[in-house]
Amino acid sequence: MKYILVTGGVISGIGKGIIASSIGTILKSCGLRVTAIKIDPYINIDAGTFSPYEHGEVFVLNDGGEVDLDLGNYERFLDINLYKDNNITTGKIYQHVINKERHGDYLGKTVQVVPHITDAVQEWVMNQAKVPVDDDKREPQICVIELGGTIGDIEGMPFVEAFRQFQFKAKRENFCNIHVSLVPQPNATGEQKTKPTQNSVRALRGLGLSPDLIVCRSAKPIEMAVKEKISMFCHVEPEQVIFIHDVSSTYRVPILLEEQGIIKYFKQRLNLPIDDQPSDLLMKWKKMACRYERLLKVCSIALVGKYTKLSDCYASVFKALEHSALAINYKLDLMYIDSTELERSMEAENSVKYHQAWHKLCKADGILVPGGFGIRGTEGKLQAISWARTKKKPFLGVCLGMQLAVVEFARNCLNWEDANSTEFDPDTKNPVVIDMPEHNPGDMGGTMRLGKRRTVFKTENSVLRKLYGDEMFVEERHRHRYEVNPELTHCFEEKGLKFVGHDTEGNRMEIIELENHPYFVGVQFHPEFSSRPMKPSPPYLGLLLAATGTLNGYLQRGCKLSP
């Protein structure tokens, strides 16, 4: 097993996740089996209870793990399926060690950060690195480990110490450290500054880790003189300094790394049994990146949500839309609309914001209402859904988006004026969305219906079934506490809102489709979590096809994309 540790310096959010994913992609393109681990130094057990404004979206895995969004990057780039134990947090490690102490495993010894916490980290990494993540179920050969935060953070110290020890346990030819740093360019001088990188590398060395590669992030391409300066002051060869400037799409990052000789370096440094040249997989990435940059036709989608100030809050949704747009040769124009700005109360409070939000919604080719929790912004989402239904605009509702589509239909088509979800109004006379019997209202963490579950189509006359290749069932990832009330579904079906998919027991409604509409679909699951750059998610692909007026042609061709 070869281990590649990716650390970061100067600032967080520098792109360690994309760089770690890209390194994995390059090594996979050389025929190696690659897995990935993300270490988050926060004390939370997992990401499940975070607001999306804290660390971006909560990504859900097949096994129900609620994890950091970087694991989504790993899955998309490497086309693998990870597990909840591929996301290590301080909380998980301390909980593991404390449980062992309570069990008496330490035989009366004083339990300390060194060696007990650091040993637990090393043990966890070595065990999880062996777990197969590909469809062929073979043990990985390379484990890419991303350490979250920046070098010098107090909460990350035990992990840095663990890897200082681990480099000797694994041996030099099996362990490599990549340090990602920032090269800022102040507007005042326009000069690219190397001092932050020098200080960051010095701090890393002071903690006992020496970088084998220094990846420098910058807004613009870095000059050769800067590379030579970093090489000289950071005690590495010039070819060990890699530059990654801001690019038009993340698909370009693996190509930039490969162009700077990273395959040759890894082959020598880790003694890998590979050729110097990448395989067809990286060539596909190159073609995809070039195609992305040449797209001319534009499709605009309005994303109506309540976490619109930070794009990372809907990272997987954005990627799923982007994958689908790329598959049909369209450039995606994603317009984020804060759902509160569509509400009537906003017109009185700030009429400019209100009219701007409605202008965006009206000019969009398609409308998407993603998942979420809490009552804030729900009336605005209901307004958007009503607009999509009555104006025949292509619409996709995901999780809460599907539940609100059912609420909107009940209010405006069944004339149940107080129809609502018990999440927002526990005393409603028409509870069209209810909490699930097994939902535990006590603990919040890990108590939802989570992970990959089977959805069975109950009719052949379903647009989503055709988009999924006419399969009898699909398996997608879930994350919800509430469900459509199964006792009321017959009322909706009589009026044309069909429940075309349900769970294996037939009790839980999973997919809705509206008759006599170009594309009005709701799904209880989160299809965005299993979307891949070369395998777009069918519900999102359907939305893009309908928004560009090409859905019927696609279905008539037997779900084959036109050349």
TrEMBL record:
Residues 2-272 form the CTP synthase N-terminal domain. It catalyses: UTP + L-glutamine + ATP + H2O = CTP + L-glutamate + ADP + phosphate + 2 H(+). One of its GO terms (cellular component) is cytoplasm. Keywords: ATP-binding, Glutamine amidotransferase, Ligase, Nucleotide-binding, Pyrimidine biosynthesis. The keyword Nucleotide-binding applies. It comes from the Eukaryota. HAMAP family: PyrG (MF_01227). Catalyzes the ATP-dependent amination of UTP to CTP with either L-glutamine or ammonia as the source of nitrogen. Constitutes the rate-limiting enzyme in the synthesis of cytosine nucleotides. This is CTP synthase. It comes from Grantiella picta. The gene is Ctps2.
